[in-house]
């Protein structure tokens, strides 16, 4: 009994209009995904980003159909698919550990899906060779997975999934087993394939650099709850809560009490000092809030108008190559991280300016 | 078609149940049922008017019968101790590899393929009254009279040893080589000598596996049958409880009594296991306290 | 230095064991070729007559046939019903799993003599006592769990992701079984089959309890002939024992042609060495 693949053979990446879902998943008593909502449009590259255990791989497994949801539904182009078994959904999946069939050659692996469809061998031969050429593995047909390097295995896994022209590609942390340099190279290859073949992709990772460079949209997850959805820009520059800000590199979080608002700026009381920040809707005077700022946005020295200047002592210096990142102890137990091209000396007293427009005002949690 | 599930608390879908059913039903029908049936018929003695426990009463009233427990125990215990000690000695010594390891392991395991009857025949021939060993020792003048090593409990012990040793050895070898070698190395770095290492580091770690091996070998030895007949004295000093059960079943055709004896044998084995588990508990407490705060 | 003494002791023991084994085996073999032998280190004359005698008198062709038939039947059935069970036990988790594992383990843990008597009683009650069917049914009781427990770790070695990726590529359950599971489980199947085969041939207690006139396996027939009223000369018994040993060796050799464990393992380095 062959699974029906109505779209098979029709051009690359038969597009989907919309994948929509809201799913809940429980393991025993623990809620692993809490009403996780998602909408993916055709040709989009969406990334699930979050620390381990946040439920992103589970979500992917549910989309694939390998893991049944406890609650909720998934709709593809308006039709409900949660009761369709994975082999009939027409999605491609690339696993973190590649999951190549050890007893088949590279050719056998990539041809597997086609051979299940009982296609003529001439056609299979042609298509597999084309695909291997596309992932730059021409000539490797007769090797076994065990004879390939990590990066090569990953490309075979990708080729194998793409071979069936899936309407949706699912990537489950495909690069986390590779070393840093290879990761950057493979990242670019995935991005190129996605664009070249007009794919729709959902990508899971804990690496924010990957997420930022690959995605059209990023979905940030924490313990099964959606923390923020947005473009890479939005996630990077305007995180909506402390978790996302922390994840995206805002290393400084100042507990403040909000004062009066005037001309688009709001006063923020921090340890006896008044700092100025851009006002935001829904933040009222008297509220406790958090001001977040990136280490690289903190300036050394006093600003011209003396606004937002803090003073502190250098406690720790990390050498990062072109820059240094230093931990500054402010009065009391507050700490500030600064990144600078200039040389910083342990024990030095510094003036630091925190530009008002680089602050992000966040709810205290 | 059912999905391959991997999450919910119970992952038993229809396919899983179908997969388990044949073998599970087989074990239930051919093991659990006969077992329970055996207990049931043991309580239905052949003599119509006798009480339901009369088989058991008869057994414990007849010295010829209840002495088999002691006989079997006196056979099984020394054998088990010998097997386990020798296997421990060898396995511990071979834990870091030894010359021709694979050949030696094969040779040690060979007796399994010989089968109990061949082994017994060979023991009779080699260790018998007129066997090669006696001939050799007599010719060399080391003994005056032939050693009686067969048709007694010594012969049976020997046969049991050769049958049970390979299994016990393999078990312990696997278990001991599974212990992280860096534990030993760190103990040496801390100044411990080989005996101290064994006593205070390795033995506590090996103990659980040792206990299991001891329990399994003892239980297997307690059920000894063909060896007791062939190289022992089935009518006398090596009349084991399984012989008693067999005789009731196939010579006296009293299935009820035979089943009762089988039940008693099972209970003895169970009692031994319980004792072993209790000893293990004691040992764990002792070693934890002896080693002191980790 | 201490270590060296220890090593010496080990080698001595091994030597003793090997000599012991050699002595036992050789004695039986020599005796089987002896014309007549009593009290001397070696028999005065040799002959192969005892083998023909044994073959004829003990109906060895029939016995061998029965033995192999039973052994192959047990292997086939044990693998057939043990394979799916081992798969489920390896892959799935459920509340009753520890109980089930214990249940499967009991026939291996409890000595065959202990449950053999009630089992024989039951089978005799069903009228299959003393028949080939009866022997097969009895020997299967410990062999099915054996097959399950040998196959289990082989299944656990096959990552679930392999089945999942096959599913994502469109494979149905049957296709996953045929094209992924079966080839990767081949070493496990062969190992389990071999161990069940050897254990069945050398099984004594259960085969003995369920044996009837025409359903004796080789080892049971051997045992009976030892006690056949002393009419049988010991040399013919030993000849039969040698035939038994050769049978097992032959089976092992044949099986090892197909089951060199390192040969059939598809390690991730993909090489078939």
UniProtKB/TrEMBL annotation, chain C:
Pfam families: BPD_transp_1 (PF00528). Keywords: Cell inner membrane, Cell membrane, Membrane, Transmembrane, Transmembrane helix, Transport. Its main location: membrane. It is found in: Cell inner membrane; Cell membrane. CDD domains: TM_PBP2 (cd06261). InterPro entries: MetI-like (IPR000515), MetI-like_sf (IPR035906). Residues 64-255 form the ABC transmembrane type-1 domain. GO terms for biological process: transmembrane transport. It is a multi-pass membrane protein. The chain crosses the membrane at residues 12-34, 63-89, 101-126, 132-155, 176-201, 207-227, 239-259. One of its GO terms (cellular component) is plasma membrane. PANTHER family: INNER MEMBRANE ABC TRANSPORTER PERMEASE PROTEIN YDCV (PTHR43357:SF4). Belongs to the binding-protein-dependent transport system permease family. This is ABC transporter permease. It comes from Bradyrhizobium japonicum.
């Amino acid at each position: 009994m062959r699974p029906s693949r109505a779209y098979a053979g029709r051009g690359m990446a038969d597009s989907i209009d919309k994948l929509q879902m809201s799913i809940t998943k429980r393991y025993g008593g623990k809620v692993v995904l809490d009403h996780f909502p998602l909408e993916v449009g055709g040709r989009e590259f969406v990334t699930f980003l979050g620390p381990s255990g946040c439920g992103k791989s589970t979500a992917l497994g549910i989309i694939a159909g390998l893991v049944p949801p406890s609650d909720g539904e998934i709709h593809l182009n308006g039709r409900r698919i949660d009761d369709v078994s994975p082999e009939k959904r027409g999605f491609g999946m690339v696993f973190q550990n590649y999951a190549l069939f050890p007893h088949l050659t590279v050719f056998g692996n990539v041809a597997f899906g086609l051979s299940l469809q009982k296609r003529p061998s001439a056609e299979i031969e042609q298509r597999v060779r084309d695909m291997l050429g596309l992932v730059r593995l021409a000539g490797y047909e007769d090797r076994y997975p065990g004879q390939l390097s990590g990066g090569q295995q990953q490309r075979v896994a990708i080729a194998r999934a793409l071979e069936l022209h899936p309407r949706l590609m699912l990537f489950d942390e495909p690069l986390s087993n590779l070393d840093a340099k290879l990761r950057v190279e493979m990242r670019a290859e995935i991005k190129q394939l996605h664009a070249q073949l007009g794919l729709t992709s959902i990508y899971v990772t804990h690496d924010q650099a990957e997420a930022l460079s690959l995605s059209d949209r990023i979905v940030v997850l924490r313990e099964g709850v959606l923390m923020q959805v947005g473009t890479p820009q939005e996630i990077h520059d305007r995180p909506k809560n402390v978790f996302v800000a922390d994840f995206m590199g805002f290393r400084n979080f100042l507990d403040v009490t909000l004062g009066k608002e005037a001309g688009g700026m709001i006063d923020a009381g921090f340890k006896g000092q008044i700092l100025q920040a851009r006002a935001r809707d829904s933040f009222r005077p008297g509220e406790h809030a958090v001001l977040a700022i990136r280490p690289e946005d903190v300036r050394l020295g006093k600003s011209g108008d003396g606004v937002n200047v803090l003073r502190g002592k250098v406690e720790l210096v990390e050498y990062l190559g072109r820059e240094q990142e230093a931990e500054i102890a402010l009065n009391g137990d507050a700490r500030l991280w600064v990144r600078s091209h200039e040389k910083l000396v342990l024990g030095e007293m510094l003036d630091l300016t925190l530009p008002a427009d680089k602050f992000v005002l966040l709810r205290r949690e | 078609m059912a999905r391959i599930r991997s999450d919910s608390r119970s992952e038993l879908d229809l396919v899983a149940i179908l997969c388990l059913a044949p073998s599970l039903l087989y074990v239930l029908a051919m093991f659990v049922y006969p077992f329970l049936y055996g207990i049931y018929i043991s309580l239905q003695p052949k003599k119509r008017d006798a009480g339901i426990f009369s088989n058991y009463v008869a057994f414990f009233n007849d010295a010829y019968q209840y002495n088999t427990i002691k006989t079997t125990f006196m056979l099984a215990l020394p054998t088990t101790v010998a097997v386990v000690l020798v296997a421990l000695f060898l396995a511990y010594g071979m834990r870091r590899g030894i010359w021709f390891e694979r050949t030696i392991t094969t040779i040690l395991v060979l007796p399994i393929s010989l089968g109990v009857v061949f082994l017994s025949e060979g023991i009779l021939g080699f260790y018998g009254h007129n066997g090669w060993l006696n001939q050799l020792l007599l010719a060399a003048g080391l003994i005056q009279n032939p050693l009686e090593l067969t048709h007694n409990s010594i012969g049976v012990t020997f046969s049991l040893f050769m049958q049970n040793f390979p299994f016990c050895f393999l078990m312990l070898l696997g278990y001991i080589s599974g212990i992280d070698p860096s534990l030993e190395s760190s103990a040496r770095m801390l100044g411990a000598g080989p005996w101290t290492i064994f006593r205070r580091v390795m033995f506590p770690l090996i103990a659980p596996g040792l206990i299991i091996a001891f329990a399994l070998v003892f239980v297997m030895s307690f059920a000894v049958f063909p060896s007791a007949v062939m190289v022992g004295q089935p009518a006398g000093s090596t009349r084991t409880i399984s012989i008693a059960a067999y005789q009731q079943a196939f010579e006296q055709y009293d299935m009820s009594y035979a089943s009762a004896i089988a039940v008693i044998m099972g209970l003895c084995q169970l009692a031994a296991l319980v004792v072993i588990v209790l000893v293990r508990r004691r040992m764990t407490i002792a070693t934890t306290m002896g080693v002191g705060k980790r | 230095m201490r270590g060296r003494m220890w090593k010496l002791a080990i080698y001595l023991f091994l030597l003793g064991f090997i000599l012991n084994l050699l002595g036992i085996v050789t004695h039986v073999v020599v005796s089987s070729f002896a014309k007549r032998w009593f009290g001397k280190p070696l028999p005065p004359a040799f002959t192969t007559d005892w083998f023909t005698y044994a073959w004829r008198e003990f109906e060895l062709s029939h016995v061998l046939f029965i033995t192999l038939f039973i052994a192959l039947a047990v292997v086939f059935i044990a693998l057939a019903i043990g394979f799916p069970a081992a798969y489920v036990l390896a892959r799935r988790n459920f509340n009753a799993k520890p109980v089930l594992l214990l249940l499967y383990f009991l026939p291996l843990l409890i000595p065959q003599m202990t449950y053999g008597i009630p089992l024989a009683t039951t089978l005799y009650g069903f009228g299959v006592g003393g028949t080939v069917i009866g022997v097969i049914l009895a020997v299967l009781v410990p062999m099915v769990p054996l097959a399950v427990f040998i196959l289990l770790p082989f299944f656990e070695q096959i990552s679930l992701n392999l089945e999942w990726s096959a599913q994502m590529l469109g494979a149905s359950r049957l296709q996953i079984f045929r094209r992924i599971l079966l080839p990767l489980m081949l070493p496990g199947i062969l190992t389990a089959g071999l161990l069940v085969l050897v254990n069945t041939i050398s099984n004594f207690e259960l085969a003995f309890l369920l044996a009837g006139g025409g359903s004796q396996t080789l080892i049971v027939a051997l045992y009976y002939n030892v006690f056949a009223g002393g009419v049988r000369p010991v040399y013919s018994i030993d000849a039969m024992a040698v035939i038994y040993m050769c049978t097992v060796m032959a089976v092992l050799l044949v099986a090892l042609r197909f089951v060199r464990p390192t040969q059939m393992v598809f390690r991730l380095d993909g090489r078939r060495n």
